Amino acid sequence: MKYAYFPGCSLHSTAKEYDQSAQAVCRRLGIELEEIPDWVCCGATPTHVTDHLLSIALPVKTLLQARKMGLGVLTCCAACFSRLKVANKIMREDEWHRERVNEIVEDKYEGEVEVRHILDILVNEYGLDKIKGNVKEGLGGLKIASYYGCLLTRPPEVTKFDDCENPTSMDRLMETLGAQPVSWPYKTECCGAGLSLTRTEIVLKLSYDILRMARDEGAECLTVACPLCQSNLDMRQMQVEKKYEEKFCLPVLYFTQLAGLALGIEPGELGLNKLMVDPMKLLKEKGLV
Fold first, then answer.
1. Is the dihedral of CA 6, 26, 118, 124 positive or negative?
2. Domain-wise residue ranges, the chain
3. What is the pTM of this model?
4. CA 56/CA 58 separation, integer angstroms
5. 3-class DSSP state for residue 244?
6. What is the CATH number of domain 137-285?
């Protein structure tokens, strides 16, 4: 099983622990990743609200590089996943956009390169039964709120791998790894994402609602699949606590970090020391480190 790996900008900068843990998990499971050469930024949040054609052309440039490799694309960032999938759909279905984007990239592309999120691949391609067979210690009944955010499963006609209102793939993976997923209604609520710097007050309110709901439903930590979600819920958690005068102390881990622990990968290989809300006390209490 081999994929063209698109890390995107975040996983080479602010979310290095996501990149580190995702690659460690794939190595442990025998999934081969080959990073796409000369990939470019997908445009993420800013581009598609400023220049529509550019928002398609940027992902297409990377998809053309993947096509040369003869491989399907695996990506970890939910925003990258969304932009690549949207570009594919437009290039397959919209002749007007296809012609103009192909002029921009000076090549011919028709949306033929498959794009999948690592969560989809682990659950639906590699399979939960095989993952269970690789579990070493398990997650010791850790109570986890699986947070999917906005982009991982929506819009469903683009993402096509889980229910957009009540996704369960991350919950099922966590359960397979020995955790106890909590049932909560905020698993797809928005955290504010790209408004983190421009409208911080909105991000603090949305993040507060998510953290409060996870805590009130008994979660001991959250697990995420998006660098923007992780940044808002983890890095800004102290600001949220200060503004709303409540203490949460809820670690926010990438699902690949928790998967790595369950598979017996050492914490140092998973970037656990890079999180703002230190998870080590909780993990030690659960006997996971």
1. positive
2. 2-117, 137-285
3. 0.97
4. 6
5. helix
6. 3.40.50.11810
Q: What is the pLDDT along the chain (289 residues), one digit of tens a residue?
A: 999 999 999 999 999 999 999 999 999 999 999 999 999 999 987 787 789 999 999 999 999 999 999 999 999 999 999 999 999 999 999 999 999 999 999 999 999 999 999 999 999 999 999 999 999 989 999 999 999 999 999 999 999 999 999 999 999 999 999 999 999 999 999 999 878 778 899 999 999 999 999 999 999 999 999 999 999 999 999 999 999 999 999 999 999 999 999 999 999 999 999 999 999 999 999 999 9
How does DSSP classify residue 2? E
How many Å apart are CA 49 and CA 44, to the nearest integer? Answer: 10
> For the sheet containing 180-181, what is the strand order?
180-181, 143-147, 221-224, 252-254
Options 3.40.50.300, 1.10.357.10, 3.40.50.2000, 1.20.1050.140; CATH for 2-117 is 1.20.1050.140
